[in-house]
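Memo to structure team: turn this sequence into structure tokens by end of day. - J.P.
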Amino acid sequence: MREELSPVIGLEIHVQLATGTKIFCGCSTDYIGAVPNVNVCPVCLGLPGALPSLNARAVELGTLAGLALGCRIRLRSRFHRKNYFYPDLPKGYQISQYDEPLAEEGFIDVADEKGGTRRIRILRLHLEEDAGKLVHGAGDGRLEGASCSLVDCNRAGVPLAEIVSAPDLTSPAMSREYVLALRRLVRHLGVGDGDMEAGSLRVDANISLKGPGESGGERVEIKNLNSLRALERSLEYEISRQRDLISRGGTVARETRHWNEVTERTLGTRSKEEAQDYRYFPDPDLPPLVITEGFVEACRRRLPELPDARRRRFVEGLGLSEEEAAVLVEERGVAAYFDAAVAAGAPPRRASAWVRTEVLRVLREERRAVGAFPVLPDTLAALLQRVESGELSTTVARECFHALRTEEISLDEALRRFGGGKPSSEELEALGRRTLEENVDVVEEILGGRDPKGKKIKYLEGLMMRALRGQETPEAVRRTLEELIFKK
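Reply from structure team:
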């Protein structure tokens, strides 16, 4: 009976919005690597008398995300104070939207375990401010080397869009696909960078088990999962833990747990709060947020081609495989680079292979954005057209590509340097004669009938192909050798 228990999973994803300033003040959001507590002011520190002022750009980005998720955008929403005490929350409350969020009733489609798709409902997208950051176990001499916890408020007040799914996910693997799909969407829209390692996309997971015909048992929330691996492993562990607990006659407590990367276990930290525990009430310093239909329609017109639509176009229109298309649409800039190369005349399949291997490899190794890549899409297209026509070998094309990106020379100069172009028949014959003169003993063995399997002539062919750096077909090289050896 216990084996029939099925996971019921819902995710709350916090997306840091790509604004230059915080959601309720003018402090910078660039906190990565900054000296602690420099990007702060009376507003984000919650000092008496300080009044918040809503960042219009955060509203715009939240609206874009809501529209891309198929949500209904509320023309009137409002902010509440969510009251709780934690050291990194300087005001003693968080400003967040509660029962009147910016967007509701959307969806996103994800891959399921059977190779199909499953529609995951989005209950709401609301705006809120981030908390500060606790730095644990500091022993840097600020307190004479004592182990302590310090508070950095640079992140306090950074704008977030919290996207809450319905409990429609049924496995850790599907949960991973959901986060990947949402991250692709966020990046394509430009509303955030979706960097989980940097903390600009964080996941809280709600997990319970249910039997046939049941609505589900008590749910457990796993907080602040900052990697796809942590998401999957924590859900796998929690499913196993809850099944084991139920099988022994126990009951699952409604609580908040944290994932320990070292022990690979979830640990209970506190009982799960209900909404009333936070004592929500409308923020008296912020009027209701009112937007117009015109504003919403202007945002709708700004929506780019979304990742799923782009992936379908790559597969159905350009003949790419699902796997190839999935890699290309993971980041909007990479997809746009590929699109531009194809528009400039690059063969789609060959362009896909080069972008997925050569271009992405360099971007990852050098940690650079595709917008700063020195080989422009039309240059790559011109290079790949020569490969497709047989004018260039893949070997020479890679040498040209390396020079184009490291020395930033022109394609014509790269082709002159690396001998681009097939050899003439006279050049091919001259190389063949030179190869035979340098390998007289091999020629004598061939003429003496001591090469029944053709290995000797294959050896000579390899020497010529190496000298030509692949700039001719093996068939043409072999034909030239046979004509010279057998005087055809």
